[in-house]
Amino acid sequence: ASLELGPYSHFMQKEIHEQPKALSDTIEAVLENGFAAGLFGARAAELLPQVEGVKILACGTSYYAGLTAKYWIESIAGISCDVEIASEYRYRAAFANPKHLVVTISQSGETLDTMEALKYAKELGHTMALSICNVRESAIPRASELVFYTRAGAEIGVASTKAFTTQLVGLFALAVTLGKQRGRVDAAAEHGYQEALRQLPGSVQHALNLEPQIKAWSDKFAAKQNALFLGRGLHYPIALEGALKLKEISYIHAEAYPAGELKHGPLALVDESMPVVVIAPNDALLEKVKSNMQEVRARGGELFVFADLDSHFSESDGVHVIRTPRHVGVLSAIVHTIPVQLLAYHVALARGTDVDKPRNLAKSVTVE
Ligand code: AGP
Fold it and tell me: Is Cytoplasm among this UniProt entry's keywords (predicted)?
């Protein structure tokens, strides 16, 4: 294993650091194709123009990729999108509109609940399914009309990292492609999205360079029992992903909330012993997030803030700040994933858990 790991201590760390390459490989496929239907397979030119809505089905981290995609699909393509946990969907009498595209997201392509949810959607009358998958010719893409393969390379660590960020690229490309077909993305907007994709691997590398600062935070977390993650908008699913990563590999209980929900319940949990991780990019919701942070500070909660270079935060008593790259706009959620992955990794190391093979979990869940 040491040969395969190179300079890294674990597959998870290696896979986190492989993200600039995994992303640029995946982006290359998108740019070569120029947001044309062909990106999603031979039948995409025929099927995608018929799509009137999108239903995303997935589990775990792949489900969080779906939650992120909803924002892009609704805002860029102007198509309604709902996102559901596969294991729930497969057992409910769901409403199926055959004009809706079913999108499954799965790193392995073998997750039983996602596969069964896809079969169930077909039974209910869906006829168009797209698989976003990292493993070629696995079961889920084989059962789908359309496919987008992420080019993350093999992912060995149980905690999904590079699969997630490359799934987001595929989903973003889907939103832009659908938007273009519907006349909602003009040439100038398309050019802007291409540029955003081109710059993404560099911004992700910049975020990876924050590792020493993030490692320095990990000792503060290692002794904690609980943590809260907050984000808003597109960064709320990233907060969910950060909390899941921390749970999976450090065994610290972590929850994520959209920051605006604090007052509706979770604020009761906040006291001096509660670390609160905040994803605070310089977007339209920044001022809202800042006032949510004051609510936490006023109850003694210790804040750990990931803020863009230009979001003007300063450290103070109980407020720790790590500056992520300058705000990158529409793909900011991908860049902000890196620090929460690194945080979970270093907290787990500090606690001495088995990072690549956390207790009770399997890499691909092929049983119910
Ligand atoms: C993430 O770190 C997980 N271990 C898990 O939630 C995973 O994302 C989920 O089981 C779905 O797997 P898939 O993408 O291979 O379908």
Answer: yes
